[in-house]
């Protein structure tokens, strides 16, 4: 009994531990966790999945048009007063009850290719829906990467602002002591106090920017925002990323063959083509095959004074029929002609949308390549500028401490360094994200 109890306790603890481990830590989410949560919670993705289920139902319905339909019906009625007795076929004044039984079946033999083309159109729409689902997933993933990078960028900006405030605060403390002993004029202290207030404001702005970046990310992955929401900051070095190709046309050709948006646009044109064939099918004759079985029961006596049993009457009254139905369209008040015209316009619209999708893809690739190359050059220049300004600030700090320069010159040097560091960070993350956008179009993994 004791071993059984310990076994159950161990099982419960293991279950709780596993459930706990499966819950992501929202205080330190990795990029992969953000993407997984975002894909799971995104309503656009759920809508695309439901649309795909609807496309499957449309295909099932279209395939069903090749099969015969079958229905059965029954009815019962009573007549009072003068009416024909269906047994004696004479007019009588009495209550007559009867039960009718019937079954009907019909199928389309030929309809101008409408059934076949409807099936092909439904298949095409299903394939299009699958590519639409992939495109939705890709767009969600790319947006989450962008917002994740924004959070990392905001965190680094916050660290820079903290560092600047720390430097200013330390210089202010030192200057106050020197002013108290008369080694420095009060104006130096006042200038540094103004600079310190500016640094505090910049720190506050950086904190707000980080909070907004986190808010955007949490809303994108549909997680209720909390103060402790955060991400696990990866070690992102711009030197670890490189532009996969410098040939934009080559990148476009690869993306054109891989991107689901293009496949979806191509299938939309194909689907509209089948729709046009369906509309043209209305001008052709249609041939249908139908069959019917009928029987009934009447609660009246026959000519011999007896009422036959239900089963006997049903068997004796059984009748069957089979026939062909040929429908030849001659004039349909221009409905068929208008239908073909609308279908042709729909195909032309799909062709325009396909070309629009290709143009948009080319523009996005050109923009991503231009952004990546521009950001890389800016980053490389900013690194040199930051290195030079760091040395200049180090010298200015020493000169300020020995009284060679005043507080204003010190502030100028510090502000120049702060701005250069901010520009370098911005260029760094613009470059990283632009490279990932190019990787996305080239079919490379969307990871940092």
Automatic annotation (TrEMBL):
Pfam families: OEP (PF02321). Its main location: membrane. InterPro entries: OMP_efflux, TolC-like. SUPFAM superfamilies: Outer membrane efflux proteins (OEP). Residues 1-21 form the signal peptide. Keywords: Cell outer membrane, Coiled coil, Membrane, Signal, Transmembrane, Transmembrane beta strand, Transport. It is found in: Cell outer membrane. Residues 119-223, 335-399 form a coiled coil. Belongs to the outer membrane factor (OMF) (TC 1.B.17) family. This is TolC family protein. It comes from Echinicola jeungdonensis.
């Amino acid at each position: 009994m004791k071993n059984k109890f310990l076994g159950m306790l161990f099982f419960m603890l293991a279950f709780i531990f596993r459930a706990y481990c499966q819950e992501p830590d929202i205080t330190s989410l990795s990029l992969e966790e953000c993407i997984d949560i975002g894909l799971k919670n995104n309503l656009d993705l759920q809508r695309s999945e439901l649309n795909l289920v609807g496309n499957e139902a449309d295909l099932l319905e279209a395939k069903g048009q090749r099969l015969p339909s079958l229905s059965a019906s029954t009815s019962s009625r009573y007549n009072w007063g003068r009416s024909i007795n269906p047994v004696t076929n004479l007019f009588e004044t009495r209550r007559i009850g009867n039960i009718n039984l019937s079954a009907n079946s019909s199928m389309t033999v030929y309809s101008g290719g409408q059934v076949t083309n409807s099936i092909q159109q439904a298949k095409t729409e299903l394939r299009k829906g699958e590519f639409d689902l992939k495109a939705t997933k890709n767009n969600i993933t790319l947006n989450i990467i962008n917002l994740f990078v924004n959070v990392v960028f905001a965190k680094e900006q916050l660290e820079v602002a903290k560092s600047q405030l720390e430097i200013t605060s330390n210089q202010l403390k030192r200057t106050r002591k020197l002013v108290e002993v008369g080694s420095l004029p009060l104006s130096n202290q006042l200038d540094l106090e103004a600079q310190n207030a500016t640094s505090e404001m910049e720190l506050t702005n950086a904190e707000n920017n980080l909070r907004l970046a986190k808010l955007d990310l949490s809303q994108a992955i549909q997680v209720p925002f909390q103060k402790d929401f955060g991400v696990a900051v990866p070690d992102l070095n711009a030197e670890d990323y490189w532009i996969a190709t410098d040939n934009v046309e080559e990148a476009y050709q690869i993306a054109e063959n891989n991107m689901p948006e293009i496949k979806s646009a191509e299938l939309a044109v194909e689907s509209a083509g089948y729709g046009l064939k369906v509309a043209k099918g209305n001008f052709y004759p249609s041939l249908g095959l139908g069959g019917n079985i009928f029987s009934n029961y009447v609660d009246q006596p026959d000519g011999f004074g007896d009422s036959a049993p239900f089963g006997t009457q049903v068997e004796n009254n059984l009748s069957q029929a089979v026939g062909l139905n040929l429908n030849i369209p001659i004039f349909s008040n221009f409905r068929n002609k208008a239908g073909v015209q609308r279908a042709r316009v729909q195909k032309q619209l799909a062709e325009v949308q396909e070309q629009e999708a290709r143009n948009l893809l080319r523009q996005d690739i050109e923009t991503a390549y231009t952004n990546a190359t521009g950001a890389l050059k800016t980053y490389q220049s900013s690194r040199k500028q930051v290195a030079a300004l760091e040395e200049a600030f180090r010298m200015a700090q020493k000169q300020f401490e020995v009284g060679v320069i005043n507080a204003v010159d010190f502030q100028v040097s510090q502000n120049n360094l702060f701005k250069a560091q901010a520009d370098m960070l911005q260029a760094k993350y613009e470059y990283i994200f632009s490279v990932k956008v190019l990787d996305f179009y080239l079919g490379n993994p969307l990871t940092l």
